[in-house]
Structures are given as structure tokens and as C-alpha cells.
Amino acid sequence: MGASLAPFQHFRTLRTIILAIASRARPLLEVVPALLVGLLLGAALMAAWGYDPWKAYLALLEGSFGNLYSLASTLSKATPLILTGLTFAIGLRAGLFNIGAQGQMVLGALVAVAASTLRLPAGLHLLISMSLAMLAGAAWSLPASWLKVRRGISEVISTIMLNWIAVWLAGYLLLHFLNDPQRGGWVSIMAAPSARFPTLVPGSELTYSIFASLAFALAIYWVLWHMVPGFELRCSGLNPAAARYAGIEPQRSINLAFILGGLAAGLTGATQILGRYPYSLDNGLTILGTLGFDGIAVALVGRNHPLGIIVAAVFFGALSAGGGLMGFRARVPLDVIYIVQGVIILAVAAPELWRLMRGLILALRFRRGRSLISSSSPSRDPGRG
Q1: pLDDT, tens digit, for every residue of 236-264?
Q2: pLDDT tens sequence across 31-45
Q3: Range of the structural domain that residue 230 is part of
Q4: What is the pTM of this model?
Q5: Is 137 part of a structural domain of the chain?
Q6: Residues 6+ positions from 106 with CB-CB distance below 8 Å
Q7: Is 375 part of a structural domain of the chain?
Q8: Burial 89-117 (b: 16+ CB within 10 A, else e)
Q9: In b/e form, how buried is each residue of 136-173, taking b as 16+ CB within 10 angstroms?
Q10: Cα 307 to Cα 299: distance, rounded to the nearest angstrom
Q11: Residue 22 domain-assigned (yes or no)
């Protein structure tokens, strides 16, 4: 009898393995067709405007991976996007829509500039500057966390407000405390050479900060998928009510998500100030750009997974690094390049964006159903015995 059941047991084991592989490969099976669709749509747009899409894409590929300098440029642009993508992804795993990476990054950059005034040995100076910048980013996330946990205020509203407060605070500090007298009032002092990341590829912008970003991403992966606090965080994001029933405190997971995201955003500011010329801030925060908001798209393309975010950040870095040669070789105007890049990014991010929207709609329907049930249930008359 046992021998007759052996083939079925082997079949069941093989089926389990195939299903496990399929579930692991599902993001890849989603991304590849979406990327092909995005490339085809971009090619159609360029062809409709009279440009050669084949020549443009070859130039894009050569400008991003064609030689060591191109690869270094791609990785350099990917370095901060890994971290800001993690900020949004960690929050989303906890059921939060944390868009405060921009403000937390600004605070991290300000503290990195201020820390350069310390007189410390080279390696220690860099380590302390990075640590202080990360702590500043985490500290700037705490008000939004407190408002969410204690008052139930939407993190979208609070983080947007904190972003603008950080921008104007940066302007005030640059003008009155961190300005460089030799370069004008709205430019900060430069980060001290002892606090800068060494250059990894000579003649390029790629520094050893890429290893800081990768190490932090791997650490977040380990925390979320191999430690109890990360498991609780993900459970709280999937179903807060079920997590609370299982003895998990969603408020604790919210605080952890904000702190981890703030650490990532603060490290972003440090990598930009300590690892990229001109090693300083100006009034427009040019060196920071919109990296905090760009991380949202990176997280969506990377399916909100730390390892996927690394790949997605390299993809975004390649689009940015290869765009210049794409315009030079194929004579594609800059506006058209931005449109094509946007179409490709939107196509790749669409499956995850649709999944998030569908989950939000289902959650709203569930809450509405619960409120209707509670309102329609007969109230107990206290006068009756």
C-alpha cells in the first residue's frame, strides 16, 4: 500500500516545489512583459515623432552600461534611490503611505554638513557623520509617527508638512549658521575631506557610498524577513486587526517602520553630501533634487522588496545615465527622452500600482461594510432587564 502511494507523494512534493518557484518568480514574470510593453510604447512614440527608436535604445544601453565609466555613472545615480525606495517600501509593508523621505533626507544632509566641522580622523569622521545623519532622519520621522499612533492623523498629511518644514529650516540654517563666507550667503560649507566617501572609480561620481546603500538594503531585508520585529511589521501591514488578535501591537510596528525609513532617508542625505561633488548644500537643495519622491517609483518597480529595490534603482540609474547619450547619438530632444522614460517606468510600475489600488479599495469596502453592520444592529435598551 505504501509503495503504491509513493508516486503520488513524489508528485505532491514536485507540485509543491513548482508552486514555490512560481510564487518566487511571479514578480519577474510581471516585470519582464511590462518592461517590453513600456519599451514598445516608447519606441512607438519616438517613431511617431520622427526619431529612430532602435538607434535611441542602443545609445541608451551604451550610455548606461557601455563601459566602466557608464556603469559607474549608473551605479552612482542608483545609490541614493536604493535608500529612498526603502523608506517608502518599509512604510508600505507596515500599511503606511510614508512620503516623508524628502524631508528626512534634507535633515540628514544638514547634519552631515554640520558634522564636517568636527575634527576627527578620516575613517572615524565619515562613520560619525553618517551615523548622525541617519539619526537626524529618524528623529524627523518621529512627529509623523506620534501623530499617527496617538491621534490617528494621516501620515500623508503629516509627512508632506514635515517635508516643507525641513526645506525652509534648511534655508534658515544655510543662511545663518552653515553658510560659507567665501562662496556667498546661500551656499553651505563643504564637507571636510576627512568625512567624504573615497572614490571607487577614478574620474567618476561613483564612491564607496554604494556599499553603504547595499549594506543597508540587505540589513532591511534581514530585519523584515528573518527577525520577529520585521515579521510583526509585515503582519500589521497586511491586517492590523488580525495582528492585534495574535498579540502584535500595530502601534509598535508603525513606530519601527517610521524609524527604519528615517534612517534610510537620513543616510541618503549623507551619501549625497559626503559622496558627491560639490559636497555642500545650496538654497535650492540642488544636490538632493527630488530623490525622496523618486524613491516611490523605485519602490513600486521593485515590488516593495529590498532586493527588488536594488535592481529597480539600477534600472532608474541606467535610464538617467544613458539619457544624455541617447539625445546626442539619436538626436532625441530632452523632453521626448523624459516622456519615453516616464512611459517605461509607468508600464513597469503599473502591476504593483494596480495591486495597491485594489487592496485599498477592498480595505475601504471592508470598513464600510463593518460600519453599516454596526449601525444597522439593534441597540440594546438599558431599561430592559
Answers
A1: 988 888 888 888 888 999 999 999 999 99
A2: 778 888 888 999 998
A3: 52-331
A4: 0.87
A5: yes
A6: 163, 166, 167, 169, 170, 269, 285, 288
A7: no
A8: bbbbbbbbebbbbbbbbbbbbbbbbbbbe
A9: bbbbbbebbbebbbeeeeebeebbbbbbeebbebbbeb
A10: 10
A11: no
